[in-house]
Prior knowledge:
This protein is α/β, with parallel strands linked by helices.
Amino acid sequence: MSNKRIETKCLHSGYSPKNGEPRMLPIVQSTTFKYESSKEMGDLFDLKADGYFYSRLANPTNDAVAAKIADLEGGVAAILTSSGQAANFYAIFNIAGAGDHIVASSAIYGGTFNLISVTMKKMGIDATFIAPDSSYEEICAAIRPNTKAVFGEVLANPSLAILDIETFAKAAHDNGIPLIVDNTFPTPINCRPFEFGADIVTHSTSKYMDGHATVVGGVVVDSGNFEWSKYPEKFACIVDPDPSYHGISYTEQFGRGAYITKLTAQLMRDLGSIPSAMNAFLLNLGLETLHVRVERHCQNALKIAKYLESNEKITWVNYPGLESNKYYGLAKKYLPNGSSGVISFGVKGGREAATVFMDSLKLCTVATHVADAKTCLLHPASTTHRQLNDEQLIECGTTPDLIRLSVGIENADDIIEDIQQALNLI
Ligand SMILES: *Cc1c(COP(=O)(O)O)cnc(C)c1O
């Protein structure tokens, strides 16, 4: 489908039924696959032949959905994971181990920040966090001889900072390492990071890709562009023969498919965070309408951001599509069709006023989720961060009055009316 436009790919990539086959992607609910001889099965184990033998490593439903996402991003290969957390862990752990180091933007999802700063640190992988607005020189200065990757979020959750992908990619490449970016919020509809030099893309598919808050999932996509074998010492793990796979070299045997093959053959084999075929099927249903939903999320969010900006009970609005926004310039460059449905704003009157506002909403629901079809909001100071005082809140990048609004695909005027009636009660 690589010659088709992205809207068409959302519907048709990854699965092309032949004559008389099911129109919808079949759910292959089977752990195992049958073979006539041990030799045939043996060749699959040795990665000498293509095929399925056990769903922990590969399953036809999952593969079709991964192929669709790879096509949407313009990559060569992808693999689904059971969550976005697993996707980011695998993407980094595939090329970094004990004694290594990574450089990461500090403006990233809280779960990913903990993964990198706590759990991966326990595994012996050190990290340096740098500001998302770091210059080329500042990024280069954070890179060490044992640094294996640079990591960031294209549109950060929840700060909505936009990563200057080209600058981060150049700094990474000039130091012989890949740039890994989490593209969850923009989705490939609004940004395809490979076009700007990123090497690996990850997603929490639990957000817009599924889009209906039904399945937790993730995906790792490879552009196939990073030349691992140019740095055989730094990336010996992917270039050198793998003793756990009969001495094959992933780069020699799989070329541009080396990274995803290694991730599947080693990490999925040993750690096994795969989604069920049923969940992959549900994700595929979401992907079929991704282009339609993302466009509407962005239209609604821009309209609501402008309404909030002009309301006297609102102190500030953070939405990259607003001309007043710090990231408006980067948004025009990397996200010309819109950023996402997520907005944050402050209500006059701080913590108390925000609580009254939240409790008065009727249509918009209070939920910790973001990026699904129904509008939802979260006031961190009275929920996820309620144990923190005002100073502590500011220290961890939020404020007592901050409300995170995930705009859904309802009629924007109904959302605005609900917000207005709640603001009237403050
Ligand atoms: C939600 C999220 C994750 C984690 O994904 P899960 O599917 O919840 O495990 C990672 N990155 C970003 C940007 C997210 O929004």
